[in-house]
Design a protein that fits this description.
Number of domains: 2
Oligomer: single chain
CATH topology of the largest domain: Rossmann fold
Number of strands: 5
Order of helices and strands: EHEHHEHHHHEHEHHHHH
Radius of gyration: 21 Å
Strand content: 5-15%
Distance between the termini: 8 Å
Bound molecules: adenosine-5'-tetraphosphate
Shape: globular
Number of helices: 13
């Protein structure tokens, strides 16, 4: 047995999360995930952040675009404040243990569990027969991404809550089926004022990379003028801003803009409304544009600078993958051993 691997229910705290390199990073990814990744980076806690390129190919990706998006995402991670000396930054495909553990989890998870996933239903739409098998199995790979590191905490946006619950179900069933206490029951960390950033065009839809309307989102590569213009044109209602959060109920577009302001300004919604209650959107939108440009423009400038030297980005990713494999490899070996595979754990 591999003694280096923790097998008790008191797991050392460790953070893992990932983002797909499937297009431009947007404000939703930043506030729901990336900013939270940076907040959790600390000298006391091991943090692993991944460009999940294997998830990205569950829907068609042009190979050249995937390469560019993976490097750009890494540049975005660093520009937003992740430090390769403090956090392990890598792309998923360079750590084959993710796919290897995912196969074991494909044999633990049940078809019915996957069929209930709202992301599967949304992304496959009415044409499920034509969707990739990878898209269906996506949550088992996500469980492997997390559990291959025995990660105990996963910062994500609200939309990933169901996948995190499935990760917990897979860990529980594996532990139960094999009579072990091997995989931790991971906690989702869904915190902050903007855990679900909505589209600027429709307050009932989440801001997303795949929305055909560029005006629906702020991309992390947008310049200051574009950011200000998109905020100016964001859908709102005719009323002014309330002084208390309950005044935002039934007003999804207004609530979205206030949430974004609060998250960018590192304030609570109540603090923001205490300041801006009574103002019209014609006054509030320029305030929001100012804080958005102040926070986002330096990130996009730094991303562009980092992208001038992609060999340095590739070096950071290769080094991160090496560090990640040092953690993943003994956990995979022990998993194989538990499952009964001959030759494992040697
Ligand atoms: N609108 C959002 N608000 C808050 N958090 C969000 N996240 C995504 N959209 C929002 C969080 O970003 C992290 C990485 O997401 P992802 O790229 O891996 O996958 P996604 O959720 O599928 O992102 P998109 O933009 O919605 O992509 P498409 O359009 O391809 O579906 C996750 O933590 C997610 O919660």
């Amino acid at each position: 047995m591999n003694e280096a691997v923790q097998t008790s229910s008191t797991f050392t705290p460790r953070v893992f999360s990932g983002i797909q390199p499937s297009g431009n990073l947007h404000l939703g990814n930043y506030l729901g995930a990336l900013k939270r990744f940076v907040d959790m980076q600390s000298d006391e806690l091991q943090t692993l952040y991944c460009m999940v390129d294997m998830h990205a190919i569950t829907v068609w990706q042009n190979p050249a675009d995937l390469q560019q998006a993976t490097r750009e995402l890494c540049a975005g991670f660093i520009a937003a404040g992740l430090d390769p000396a403090k956090s392990i930054l890598f792309n998923q495909s360079q750590v084959p243990e993710h796919a290897q553990l995912a196969w074991v989890f494909n044999c633990v998870a049940r078809m019915g569990w996957m069929q209930r996933m709202t992301q599967w239903k949304d992304k496959a739409g009415k044409n499920q027969q034509n969707a990739s098998l990878g898209l269906f199995a996506y949550p088992a790979l996500m469980a492997a991404d997390i559990l291959i590191y025995h990660a105990t905490q996963v910062p994500v946006g609200e939309d990933q809550k169901q996948h995190l619950e499935l990760t917990r179900d897979i860990a529980t069933k594996f532990n139960h089926d094999y009579g072990v206490d091997f995989f931790p029951i991971t906690e989702p960390v869904i915190e902050g004022a903007a855990t679900r950033v909505m589209s600027f065009r429709d307050g009932s839809k989440k801001m997303s990379k795949s929305d055909p309307s560029d005006a629906s989102r702020i991309n992390m590569t947008d310049d200051a003028d574009t950011i200000a213009k998109k905020i100016r044109k964001a859908k709102t209602d005719p009323d002014g801003l309330p002084s208390e959060a309950k005044g935002l109920e039934e007003r999804p577009e207004a609530r979205n803009l206030v949430n974004i302001y609060a998250a960018l300004a590192d304030k609570t919604v109540d603090q923001v409304l205490a300041d801006v209650g009574g103002k019209q959107f014609s006054e509030f939108k320029p305030m929001l544009a100012d804080v958005a440009v102040e926070k986002l423009a330096p990130i996009s400038t730094e991303m562009a600078r980092l992208m001038q030297d992609t060999s340095e980005i590739d070096r950071i990713l290769a080094h991160g993958a090496q560090q990640a494999r040092e953690i993943a490899s003994p956990i995979l070996a022990r998993t194989y051993e538990i499952v009964g595979m001959v030759g494992a754990g040697k």
